[in-house]
Here is the input.
Amino acid sequence: MTDKIIIFDTTLRDGEQSPGASMTKEEKLRIARQLDKLGVDVIEAGFAAASPGDADAIQSIARIIERSTVCSLARASEKDVRAAGEAIKPAKHGRIHTFIATSPIHMQHKLRMSEDQVVERAVQAVKWALEYTDDVEFSAEDAVRSEMDFLVRIFDAVIKAGATTLNVPDTVGYSIPSLWGERFKDLIARVPNSDKVIWSTHCHNDLGMASANSLAAVMNGARQVECTINGLGERAGNASLEEVVMAIKTRRDVFTCDTGIDTTQIVPTSKLVSSITGYPIHPNKAIVGANAFAHESGIHQDGVLKHRETYEIMRAEDVGWSANKMVMGKHSGRAAFRARLQELGIVLEGEEAVNAAFARFKDLADKKHEIFDEDLQALGSDEEAAQVSEHFRLVAMGAHSETGALPVARVVLNVGGKETHADAQGGGPVDAIFKAIEQIVKSETELLLYSVNNITSGTDAQGEVTVRLSKGGRVVNGQGADTDIVTASAKAYLNALNKLHAGTERAHPQV
Ligand code: KIV
Ligand code: ZN
Here is the structure.
């Protein structure tokens, strides 16, 4: 008999707390669909009380997700819990995740509450949550620095109040595997009725041990792991889903448990999250890094050719690395195009959007002989970007650079229905284009990040550009893809400006 480990993905909540990783509702929906396909058990879709936009995104996710449980975070306050309850109402399976800090340092300096008050509030929050769902998770924030006797007391109280999952977070990434494992063993031994609830671990990566700590918790009785795709999250991030899942799968000799994850969806999910958030994946990142399955030294290559397992403990194809597959070309028809988009989980609303995407596809097929799945993913993102209300729309552009002369660019934009143009010089063609756009838009934003990645290989590959802009404390990411990286850059810049133009403010759950 193997136990099931519940995979609780918090990419859309804790992951979104990475600086600059905030996502639009459409982007969250796209990731949520992919997480469902990946087979995660719980999707923490956001923090409903943060803003009306967050609540709306959770509600929309709750409406479309059939299999996974959809969860909202809520501080232990009536307003937060009720906002979470309303947001998850449309879900087939909905959960409220409420939390309060339990460490002396947080209770004294942040909450300014006594132990008694904290317990009372936690119990009350669980009771409010139960008015909406019987699936209620309670987290003792900063459990890693909380006193053991107090943790036992508060967990006992919330079990009596009706909580069904107890989450033990290493909020500040302070623990090490042996101590974290021991903490679970002790809690499960000391908390009355501990066998009636699911014990959950939530680890941050400040000392690079989030995944190792999570696995130590599993070895000592935790049956839910909270994690994110690519380890995204507050500060140094969270335990990364791909590492935890593949460790459990690969070391069957150590773990007497399994997850319900379709591991072949790991790499596509990782790429999608990276492209939407603008957080690139380090080439050496375990499982999902570009070099994770590459063998450089001659001795290793020779070994793998003779017998794969000499240097490989996992198979690349098992985690979704497939050799770039040519899926379509310029002669492919509309029906085949639509079917492939559906297989890739790219949902376009209405015939008009499909027609527009098909026109873009034909355009791309003219410039680029072979179209891969990754190109179609980028095309889907472009089409979604076009669906964000386009206050600033690119009509035409040109850039010229020549040895010994300053690069120049001209851009024609449609701004709120009116066409206007500008010319500018810059240090390079991208700089010139951005300056020309800025002459028209006068956004006065700060450029925090500009990055270009090739979507597939070859000099005819599309470049995917991410532009991160900040204005008045708000940070947005814009994306654009094109075989011409100057055009991709202009698209990304305008996408970010459109998001800023349409955006709303959000609060932070830990404040
Ligand atoms: O790190 C943390 O403590 C959290 C809680 C809200 C679970 O993210
Ligand atoms: Zn966290």
